[in-house]
Amino acid sequence: MLKLTPLTATGNNARGDNVIEYLTATQSLKNLTGYYIGADLGEDTMRWRGHGAAMLNLMGKTVDKAAMIELAAGFSPDGLKEKLCQNAGKLPEKVLKLDRDGNPRLLPNGHPDFVWKGGHQVGYDCVFNAPKSVSLLLAFADPEERSAILQAHRDAVDQGLEYMESKVETRRGKAGIDVIPVDGLVITSCDHLANRNLEPHLHTHNMLYGVAYADGKWGGWESSELFRHQKAADTIYMAHLAENLRKLGYGIEQQAEVDPDQQDTGVRSWKVSGIDDATIAAFSTRKDEVLEAMTEGLSHQEAWAKTRAHKDEPSPEELFSTWEKVIPAVGQDCDITNLKGRSDIQAPARSDDDILEALHATTAIVAEKDILWEVTRARAGQSPEALLADVKRLKESMVEIAPERQAAVDQGVHVSRRYSETRYAWSKIVDWEQEVQQRADARRDDISVRVPERILDTVIADYQKEKGFTLSDEQREAVHHLCSNSGGHAVMAGVAGAGKTTVADLYKRCFEANGQELIGACTSRKAAGKLSEESGMDAMSTKMLLARLDNGWKITKDHPRLNSKSVVVLDEAGMIDTEVVRRLMRHVDDAGAKLILQGDMKQLQAIGAGAGMALVSEKLGQTELTEIRRQKNAEDRDIAIAFYDRDAQGRIILHNRADPKSRGEIAQKSANVWKKLEKRGAIDAYNTRTEAMDACTRDWLDSPHAIDNRLLLVHDHADSQALTDRIRVGLRERGVLQGDDHTFKGRRDKRLYDMTVAVGDRVRITKNDNDLGVENGDMAQVESIARTATGSLAIGLRVEGKPGQSSFAVAVDTQVWNHLQAGYCRTVHDAQGQGKPAVFHFANASMVDNQSALVAFTRLTSDKYRMYGAEVELEQVKNRLGADRLKQNAVQEGFWKQHAQKRPAPTLEQEYDQHLRQDRGLQR
Questions:
Q1: Which of 312, 314, 730, 762 keeps 20 to 30 A from 101, CA to CA?
Q2: What is the pLDDT of residues 534-592, one digit of tens each?
């Protein structure tokens, strides 16, 4: 997979590695020509790439460190200090870190802590990685063939870079309103032959400097399109690499990925035919050794260093000499003549419908780049021509959707590609969305499901008397809307922490007073238990409810079938995709029942395609709860509400059809939220991710709150694993963990992972199991571990009981039941609905947006929230707190041929700017 990493003004990535030093230390392959590499290799290990490099007359010249340093600073490479961008030469500032009281923060050694801020960003490190089979082939081939294989890889890298360069954009005009493609980037490419465990691993680092030529002058460029097209660029590289190897006479073997149950996932990869899977596995130990070292409490960088075979990387001569001996020793046939001339081998074919199904697994609207990626996942190893032909055919079969909407104030003479490109949706997706809205519209005036006002008033009066408080106006309005003023479907939207459960308790009483019965449906069984506990209604997961409805099974003992007196409550409906809402509506409508969708479309989005709640809301409107009740601190409530947008009248916007925010509005909102978080002492930036993780772990361990009241939030599994490793080291030092560590394969859904446990560890159950009496999400503590005769682990667990219930013991054998994961971290997505007094949030720049940041912060109930990260990543997070990543629906975005938006007429100021450009010859 192609990796794309930002480089700070110091030239470091988020791990703290200095990329220029690393690349310039790479030894030349040209010195090996004749014995280890063929004489016709061509260019050296390091070489210039990019149309911008050609404009600077660098192509074909030797790459030297001095030129790289100049370009990294934003200057011309000739040493004349000609600025190639506005902030060329701007150095980062070393800033003393302060705590909330203004005192210097100290490192564990007692020294003051500093962080580097600002300065000219060097650029990005873009790494293309060859499949392991190609790396092995290169390792044992003869010199001439080795040269040809290396050139096949380089040519494919060039194709991937060409694609990326064609997508990069820059800004021109007043306030950067015009977005134009760059004419050229400046890139240094550098080949590496091995990973740091000295195993064959052909990969090329490409240092994309932060300068570009466009519109007749040099300047900076924006990285957003680079990241948008990252997967597609990898697709281009892999397709060209496979085809280049075919031209050398090798066969390409397509392989099917299977899940832990050995079921075909539909994903395909490829390898060079004749390279044994056993050989690939034997030389793929690097990742395992690094993870093992990290369980000892080492940082990622320390783990890499500890597991290296040598302090200094061996020369290419040593590598090739070693590989030529060890690869045949594992039984691999290394005779090139036996490997050439083989036919391609295909895995079971994936149909176009299979691809469309996978393409829309998580989104209703896609772009060409997404189709390109999904076709490759289904048909890996095919030629670039076949790949593009498949993409073209699929596009022609889909519904064309209008481009992404853009604020009128941001529309210059030239708009960014993303605001002008056609998008696509599978016709099935469009049909589902239209059905949801048609059903909502058809029953808007259904009076048979309404509670009479006289009953409503009586129940509300009794409720207020019982509880000893008066409902707020919006709470009263919400109950009236859901019970008496809506038809077969109704929507209640509420901000995070608005107390939707209080309203749910009340409307449940109102419906029941009218002889109606409620059944709750939630994203998970655990969430259903929480809804049932708080509201008193029977509840289950949407998956379970739909299974029972689809199969005609009894729903519950007291509510066997849906009928005209049934009220289905879809909780956290903002996280439910369109297809689930459509299926639920069908059952509800067939029974003449009522469906309530309650949630927040501004929090975390559905995992599946589309947003069903938004479709219903657009047709029927919604009642809203905007008063925050979860956060006890007024400052925290102010921060929480700052994540939401407001309309011209100052009202909070809880629907998803507002006009898109402008760049200025996003920047202003991001700055406002960031300023409030900084004032709260909630931002903790460090020079590297390693330092940030260490600090986050330290604070978590030292927290005065009980472990089950500390919420450690992450965005991906890699960060969860790294932080878990550190926490376990700290807990062992404190005597919480006892005895030896034991490792086994844990499982969650279709994902397998290495999991290490000791007595005293906290773990999370990842599967519902009625026989054991556990639910997905239950927490447990490891009480005993023993090795069985078959080598598996017999683990004794103490499972936490539900509120008011005692804990209980269960015993599992990991050979037959391994549905466990470490219980110290939660992903932000898993945490929606949680509330804790201490929240530790480790940020990931590529995954933070307004929605995820909102959910992360609003998990806080009373004491402390803190966001941790490397400075280079938090700078990106800082600018994304106002940016939305909402699920879109095809019918709401508009069909290209019927409803494509016309660009608003330009303002007088825009017309004058355009006239000046044309008058001065600047119009492209």
A1: 730
A2: 888 999 999 999 999 999 999 998 889 999 999 999 999 999 999 999 999 999 999 99
Tell me the pLDDT of the chain averaged across its residues.
Answer: 88
* Positive or negative torsion for Cα 143, 146, 152, 153: negative
Whether the CB-CB separation of 416 and 169 falls below 8 Å is answered with yes
| Cβ neighbourhood burial of 790 (10 Å; 0-12, 13-18, 19+) | exposed
Q: Which element (helix H / strand E) includes 855?
A: helix 850-857
Closest by CA to 780, choosing from 799, 752, 761, 765, is 799
Measure the CA–CA gap between 518 and 521, rounded to whole angstroms.
10
174's CB contacts (< 8 A; 6+ apart) are 913
- The tens digit of pLDDT for each residue in 168-205 reads 999 988 888 899 999 999 999 999 988 878 899 999 99
Domain regions of the chain by residue span: 3-85+120-250, 349-425+895-924, 439-629, 669-878
Q: How many CA atoms lie within 13 A of 746 on its CB side?
A: 19
Residue 14 pLDDT more than 80? no
Beta bridge partners of 212: 185, 219
Amino acid at 195: N
Q: Is 202 helix (H, G, I), strand (E, B) or coil?
A: strand
Contact 715, 828 (CB under 8 A): yes
**Which pLDDT does position 566 carry in this prediction?**
96
SS3 sequence of 798-852: EECCCCCCCCEEEEEECCCCCCEEECCEEEHHHHCCCCEEEEEEECCCCCCCHHH
Cα distance between residue 825 and residue 715, in whole Å:
10
Map tokens 């500032």 to a residue.
93
Pairing of strands 623-625, 808-813: unpaired
Answer for the pair 401, 425: CB distance below 8 angstroms, yes or no: yes
Measured in residues, the chain has a length of 924
419's tokens = 């605001």
Tell me the β-bridge partners of 218: 213
Can you read off the two tokens belonging to residue 807?
A: 């804990």
Between the CA of residue 793 and those of 414, 769, 779, 812, 852, what are the distances in Å?
62, 19, 19, 8, 37
- How confident is residue 802, by pLDDT bands cut at 50, 70 and 90? confident
Radius of gyration of the chain (CA): 29
What whole-number distance in Å separates Cα of residue 920 and Cα of residue 358? 50
The b-or-e profile of 699-722 (16+ CB within 10 A means b, else e) is bbbebeeebeebbbbbbeeebbbb
At 339-386, the pLDDT tens digits run 999 999 999 999 999 999 999 999 999 999 999 999 999 999 999 999
Return the structure tokens found at 238.
């892999």
For residues 41 and 33, is the Cβ–Cβ distance under 8 A? yes
SS3 915: helix
Q: Are 505 and 536 in contact (CB under 8 A)?
A: yes
Q: Which CATH number fits domain 3-85+120-250: 3.30.70, 1.10.3470, 3.30.930, 2.40.33?
A: 3.30.930
DSSP state letter for 774: B
Q: Domain 439-629, what fold?
A: Rossmann fold (3.40.50)
E-only strand ranges, 437-549: 489-494, 517-522, 538-541
Tokens of 822: 């470490």
- Three-state SS string over 287-310 comes to HHHHHHHHCCCCCHHHHHHHCCCC
Three-state DSSP class for 59? coil
